[in-house]
Automatic annotation (TrEMBL):
Database matches in PROSITE patterns: GIY_YIG
Gene3D superfamilies linked: GIY-YIG endonuclease (3.40.1440.10)
Species in which this protein is naturally found: Priestia flexa
Protein name: Excinuclease cho
Superkingdom of origin: Bacteria
Domain GIY-YIG: 35-112
Entry annotated with the keyword DNA repair: yes
Pfam families, per the entry: GIY-YIG
Length: 175
């Protein structure tokens, strides 16, 4: 599944995307408003991805990388020749989704975070809900709901939330 496929399937709202040579970063950063949110990808001279990051204030984050203040890229700054930006709508809740999608697609060597647990953490809230049923004392059931919103005790049908997460994980290329 490509980055674009995942962006479409999970309805991630990318409002602008562009690339630039790192040598031109000062000029580019002048044009980016301070409040822009997004994901950035650093590439080497052969256009191989080196690092993917995200930031609520992408302009400040990129400055910290290019000025050598970021521990993730400080030792590799001389190898970073290009940068691509994927800017999101302000206040977007998709920032971590998009970063994870891009890391999963490119598998850059400077990203040390294991991707599988990040996907599971992002997908679980999509499916994990509590049963809408109540017990004999009219208290909420509290068990995990199946697809129709109820646990098996209260007429729940369909798959369990962890089965739905596993299904999505397979779609994303994890076994």
């Amino acid at each position: 599944m490509s980055v674009l496929d995942v962006i479409n399937e999970f309805e991630i709202n990318v409002v602008e995307a562009f690339s630039f040579k790192v040598n031109d970063y000062r000029k580019i950063l002048e044009e980016i408003p301070w409040y822009k949110t997004g994901v950035y990808i650093f590439f080497d001279e052969n256009h191989q991805p080196l690092y993917v990051g995200k930031s609520e204030k992408i302009k400040d984050r990129l400055k910290s990388h290019f000025k050598g203040f970021s521990s993730e890229t400080k030792m590799h700054i001389d190898n970073i020749k290009y940068c691509s930006l994927l800017l999101l709508k302000r206040g977007s809740t998709s920032l971590e989704w998009l970063e994870t999608v891009v890391i999963n697609e490119y598998k850059p060597p400077l990203n040390t975070v294991r991707n599988k647990w990040r996907w599971e953490r992002l997908l679980t809230p999509k499916y994990k809900h509590r049963c809408k049923g109540t017990n004999s004392r009219n208290e909420n059931c509290g068990l995990s709901a199946l697809e129709n919103g109820f646990c098996k005790n209260h007429g729940g049908i369909g798959k369990k939330w962890n089965e739905l997460v596993e299904e999505d994980m397979r779609k994303l290329g994890f076994n």
